């Protein structure tokens, strides 16, 4: 193949090369205008011109539509290192991804043409909702979450945390969970070279000393692991973890988990208002793991694209969509174990695998859902929980 940029790494076999030769005027002013409080440490104009250059005609889309896969199209291990289960539906996945490849190609072209100035304000949100090209996900997450700004304002801080004295209890808690983190991912096995357990340990131990009020909580290992797989950089993973735990999901992972309990109650209120039924207890894992090991990897990453940009209301949109879409099925349950089983089933199958369609659903199915509404419910639910002791 000629020189270019690999467009898709998420498909396992469709590697498409984007020809170079076009330019794009969008500069770092884009992100300063969208997020005036976030200094842009990396020039997004260079990012656009150097990393997601696309041809300005329809030839790339035509090529994507006409790609003929090799004999072995979907491999046993996905591009992120996860082994596919024995009951994995290869035929359905191939059919899905042959369609999704065209979407990915179109999105890469759109991102390369993102305008600057006033027009981009509404477009950035729309572009992120439609998916960030995977090879540029880490950079966009870093910028829109504020992690990039925090990292640049604190040079050397992460490495000083690693070099400092360690809390023995924290070390023991983190080491206990190392082999439990993604046992189905070959990159986290001790036999891997390099073994991502070492990187994961560094990120978690640094964060535990950075945020002593939280320290370490089960669930953080999976989130940090995903961040490492995407960023391939432990310092960036640390700052993204800080953005999630410190700003986007405050008090989710503290010893009392008041933020998590509050948001479970908020979901209950939203469900009662919309459906007349409360199912919060069975979705706690959705919240604590941010849908990791619950929804397909590509779907989780698309959710996180929006989570880093729009905040925690995205979690409610996903939960409400899953429940509303399968409400009749869930209502067939006659006891709590049956409810738990049905909730496992609704996170499988075509509805959640077709990530592009699923993401469209989460912004239509639940209707209007503002952070103002969520914050008011949080205040009420938190007071209720505190009064109960």
TrEMBL record:
InterPro entries documented for this protein: Rab-GAP-TBC_dom, Rab-GAP_TBC_sf, Rab_GAP_TBC_domain
GO molecular function (one): GTPase activator activity
UniProt source species: Anas platyrhynchos (Mallard)
Function summary: May act as a GTPase-activating protein for Rab family protein(s).
Keyword annotations of the record: GTPase activation
UniProt keyword Lyase, yes or no: no
Protein name per UniProt: Growth hormone regulated TBC protein 1
Annotated SMART domains: TBC
Lineage: Eukaryota, Metazoa, Chordata, Craniata, Vertebrata
Domain Rab-GAP TBC positions: 131-311
